[in-house]
Amino acid sequence: MRIGIVCPYSLDAPGGVQVHVTDLAARLIAQGHEVSVLAPADEDTPVPDFVEATGRSIAVRYNGSVARLAFGPVTARRVHGWLEDGDFDVLHIHEPLIPSVGLIALWQAEVPVVATFHTANDRSRAMQVAYPMLRPTLERISARIAVSEEARRTVVEHMGGDAIVIPNGVELDLFRDAERRPAWEGTPERPTLAFLGRTDEPRKGLGVLLAAVPAIVAAVPGARILIAGRGDLAQAREVAARHPGVLELLGEVTEEDKASLLRSVDLYIAPQTGGESFGIVLVEAMAAGAGVVASNLSAFRRVLQEGRAGTLFEVGDGDALARAVIDALADPDRVEAVRASASVWCDQYGWDVVVAQILDVYQLAAGEAGKVVAR
Amino acid sequence: MTAEILLAVVVVLVLLVWLVLAKANRLDLLHQKITRTAATLDAQLLRRAGQAAELAATGRLDPASSLVLAGAADACLTTGQDLEIPLDAERSLPGRATLTEEREVVESDLSRVLRQALEGAGEHGPGDLAIVADVVATGRRVEMARRFHNDAVTQTVRIRSQAMVRLLRLAGNARLPRTFEMDDTPPRLR
């Protein structure tokens, strides 16, 4: 297929949507499809050669945050040229409600359009004012994808209609084949637990884990807890001083270290208290083969198959977390069984499955909308 | 002899008092002037934002530009407008009650968004719309109004920095006025 993908955010700045778009394009190309990605990016920003940069993006406050977006007549002309040259069978627009190249491409599109909604957010005032004007443009979307249940709910509530949920792909192999580090591997006497995430962001839940430390140490005196992530560590140091030899503060780690860490430890602890729409890191931990102990947020319950692919505990409850960890460490056979099933379960979040699902959507959209496209 | 000295002292004192009163009067007039230039600039800014919102609603721009422009105009129309400004605010806050730092930011954003949304439209763009001409013209008036306002502020600040004015507190309780700094470069249509 000839596929055009549009990313609204500038590739000058890192971000989840940008990563998803370039990964998706690379995988579609690997399967033999012709793919071109249109995205704002400055001339001197290095981009993969399948990317067409529109340039001319400006930092705009929109919906409570600042993003680099491209719009205006110059951008519109470049989008038009890209659509003409590309002669696509299907156009895949990410975040079509973001006022950038995606919305412009949708406005100009004469081919079937698939749209992916990434974020769950409230309608801005600007959106409320402009929505009636945008409706005809948005009606050109043939198929909607949401990357999570939360994103889907936003689509349903704000735009009406429905969306298919296809999560973002995870690089499972990166975690399956990661190198084990002896320093991080646990032994029956000294099992290792890992925490990942910003240490001073309350919603990441380090405080919940720290509250569980005394009970864990009392039951499993040899336990080692590895804490990786940037941010202030004052609270963790305090607990570390009270329980010498238990906490190991690794600071910020690279993607590679993160994979090795998840591959080496016995348990990965996810004490997040909110703000998670999916839980990619849980999938990564499952692929790496770490047992997962996670708070029972609705997103985590889904990813862990209601507890069959990992252990769930009450959100924000340090005692419940301690009990879950102690039970898991006391029963390695059960953990092993859960781990084996998790390793299979997480396949559905891998890129191979995700790309196949997205291609299905492309084909359906191209097949049914190819005949009539409302202008 | 003593009478002559006394007379001289009285004359000098009267002269001094007159000087001080003249300075205070001049300062008062300048503060009044700032109040007027601030009101003019405020009106032109609001007018520009209103016209920008109107332009966003025409549907003649691309949808992304419309959406960003609607958001930027809305920010300008609402920022600082929900404040309860006391009637005598202008006496103690010459030019500062409405022209806040927050507004410098949103008004600069609107200027940048207008340039991005309108520049390079070419022959068949929205350049021929009356509302585009209006918003550009108002933008030029904003440029001028801002210059007049900042000139008045600069004059006042200069006088208020004089030792006598500070020593005798001739400015009363009025806070030091500040210039309004923003990106007001209008879009180049051709």
Order of helices and strands of chain A: EHEEEEHEHEHEHEHEHEHEHEHEHEHHH
Q: How much helix, percentage-wise, in residues of chain B? A: 55-70%
Work out the helix count of chain A: 14
Question: Which architecture of the largest domain in chain A does the CATH hierarchy give at level 2?
Answer: 3-Layer(aba) Sandwich
Q: What is the total number of structural domains of chain A? A: 2
Structural class of chain A: alpha/beta
Rg on CA atoms of chain B, Å = 23 Å
List keywords for this structure.
heterodimer, A: 375 residues, alpha/beta, Rossmann fold, 2 domains, 7-stranded parallel β-sheet, 6-stranded parallel β-sheet, 14 helices, 43% helix, elongated, disordered C terminus, B: 190 residues, mainly alpha, 68% helix
Describe it.
The complex is a heterodimer of chains A (375) and B (190). With 375 residues, chain A is α/β, with parallel strands linked by helices. Chain A folds into two domains: 2-169 and 351-369, Glycogen Phosphorylase B (Rossmann fold); 172-347, Rossmann fold. Helices cover 43% and strands 18% of the residues of chain A. In chain A, helix 2 packs across helix 3 (101-108) and helix 7 (206-219) packs across helix 12 (318-330). The model of chain A is unreliable at 370-375 (pLDDT under 50). Chain B has 190 residues and is mainly alpha-helical. Chain B has one domain. Chain B contains six helices and no strands. The longest helix of chain B has 55 residues, at 2-56. The chains are: A alpha/beta (375), B mainly alpha (190).
Give the gist of this structure.
The complex is a heterodimer of chains A (375) and B (190). Chain A is 43% helix and 18% strand. With 375 residues, chain A is an alpha/beta fold.
